[in-house]
Design goal:
By secondary structure, this protein is α/β, with parallel strands linked by helices. α1 (about 20-40) packs antiparallel against α4 and α10 crosses α11. The longest helix has about 30 residues, at about 360-395. The protein is globular, with a radius of gyration of 34 Å. It binds adenosine-5'-diphosphate (ADP) and magnesium ion (MG).
Amino acid sequence: MVAEPSNQFTPDLKPACSAADLRLLHAWLRPLQTALTLEADRGCIDLQGRQERFHSFLTRELATPPPIPLPADSQARLQDFTQSYSTYPSLTEAARRRLVTTTRQWLHGLRQRLEPSQPMAPPRLKVAESAPVAKASGSAAGPLNLDAPLARVKGIGPKLAERLASLGLLLVRDLLLYYPRDYVDYSAMRRIEALEPGETATIVASVRRCHGFTSPRNPNLSILELQVQDPTGRLKVTRFLAGKRFSSPAALHAQTRQFPVGATVAISGLVKSGPYGLSFQDPLIEVLETANAPLRSRQIGRLLPVYALTEGLTADRLRTLVELVLPLADRWPEPLSPDRRQSLQLIAKAEALRGIHRPVDREGLQQARRRLVFDEFLLLQLGLMQRRAAIRKRQAPALDGVGQRDGLVGQFLALLPFALTGAQQRVLAEIEADLVKPEPMARLVQGDVGSGKTVVAVAALLNAIDAGWQGALMAPTEVLAEQHYRSLCQWLTPLHVSVELLTGSTSRPNRRRMLTDLANGSLHILVGTHALIEDPVDFSRLGLVVVDEQHRFGVRQRNRLLSKGLQPHLLTMTATPIPRTLALSLHGDLDVSQIDELPPGRTPIQTRQIAGSDRQEAYDLIREQVEAGQRAYVVLPLVEESEKLDLRSAVDVHRQLDEEVFADFSVGLLHGRLNSADKQAVIRSFAQGDCQVLVSTTVVEVGVDVPEASVMVIDHADRFGLAQLHQLRGRVGRGAAASHCLLVNDSRNALARQRLDVLVRSTDGFEIAEMDLRLRGPGQVLGTRQSGLPDLALASLADDGAVLEDARDEAKRLIDEDPLLNHHPVLRQLLENQRLRMTAAGQLN
Ligand code: ADP
Ligand code: MG
């Protein structure tokens, strides 16, 4: 069996303790243990030592543990002890004795936890076998199969079926694919002394005492208190009995009788720490006939799956239902041959389905996950590769003379006031190498903000024009389209290349004129928003389409472009780079190029985090910079759901800054509700310096290019994704002046701080994207719907790169051998289903 390298399920390992650490530990422990033993022997009288009393010795020593890695809970425990010993002289004798005993026990446990010597082996349990589940035979309508409606499963009535349907669970198959969201881990078997607060664990112990009573304040609540012990310690276990029916002495007695003194019990639950030490609160308890008897409980000692629930469907109920259909997992068609499974070290599909719902242990769960994730990736890759192969088969516009640089491309590069960076040259060469091939290019260029993608795109477009074709440049927003349009006009007018801008706000007559010019071939390049592909725009000879900010154009739009019967070369660009493995899995139908170098001469942006209460600091900086002739952005979060609210806050902040804080400056306001002309007017006035401070929602994220802007203050920075913040930040630092970005963080959340710190430390978009994935998870970063990835695959992307690569290799192997998968009927069918699902989703959108 292979052990997947994964940090997903690391068991609670003991902190590593070096030999030197151990010596320090012993030097500290020995005198403490001696003192405690003596004190206990003498009857807890606070012994007078040569220099001081017992309690002051303990207070000091416990407050100064050796500087070695101690278990997580030690700090708090030691503080508690220190506190208790400082009041030791005023305690009753019984209390002193208790304190001394627990201290001894705890120190003893600490030593055991830190010493590499054999710790007391955890207890063992025979976990219940899989229940001889549900006659998987259906009712009158014949035996159940994967495609049977859930309503036909015995035990699922019409009401329940309806609730399940509200979770999207209609068929047996759906329930099997309803993977747990998480697990409660009762599989950690512990000795009592090794229990850690906050963990879920299972112990096997014997009952010392059990007594029950009804809450004096609430007759509806009775409480069962158990004292249990194992060879390493004792523990209190509390169980709540709700309902009046438990409050009679007879009922209580019946309860306590279940746990006779000396009985062996297995207990699973969450460990809590309270004033009297650790305890289990309302755990699962089962009395074992013998220590070796198998458990009847199907929860104790297990990894218990946790499913996303819906109203009226409890966790237990859902677990039971899944168990009901689990035997049918055996009918699941196996897409991989035993040979391939073996060489890929994957378990069988049926076993994986059982293992994800009903894991025996962490290892088994890991194996199950790996297999299921593998399958998801495999299908995804196969789909993309087949698509890619289909595109390749089409005829692409023949671009003669590409790469020769004697026409427009050469003139353009010569006219540029700068030389291309090495990375730009390399990527342009990669593009040109694609363009000479008879098959259509499908390439993604990833490059950080400001890395100069536009220049490369223009050079690519000119290659097409040189060869007598037309080009299109698409941007996600009007602001960005207009920005591109201006750059292109500036660069291309001297070359006599005609460029027009087509957006939602283009007037009808203009639009008609453009479309005519496009159709008769007199218009070379059309710049626009998606309107370009959504409306009937006919090019006479469309050779190359450039899509900027690819992440906003999904596969759907790419498909639409192709489904219009066009097979132009396609170049997509993104400034939101994602790690290479991810890029390959999401864009397996694209080749990927990276511009991984910034043009020279940029001064790095200085980024800082400040608290909301220090906003004045930000305003001071803005004032200082504006007085020095620079300009500043103040960016406010825009949360889509409450666009109105955000707008109001933008308007409010603008008014406050304009009238109060910067009464002597002119402050502009830019937000998504402005029409295009007004937006342009605001941006122009900022670009020209008529206003010096621009309050904006995230519409400045892309496109706006004002070299004099040297400060950006981002309000509520914790609400943005890192990649987006990085994009925003890219709006400053475009000129020569040193620039600043202040991230205002109002959140006390440590993770939020940590995330924002990534931006403070790094200006590398690739690194930032990678950290964002790690910290927020791919689901958050990419959005399930946007990425089109199944949940499980998505969840595993951050740490399971290896499975992804295995799946990609396997997909490639399969496609190379058998492009149409004629010899793999199961895979073929699954792919077909996937395709149907995706098209259906596309139509809904
Ligand atoms: P991106 O789209 O990748 O964010 P742009 O293409 O908008 O970046 O380029 C950012 C700025 O850098 C533009 O003003 C552009 O003219 C300039 N630029 C591009 N390439 C170079 C280069 N090789 N040397 C100097 N400046 C460059
Ligand atoms: Mg750009």
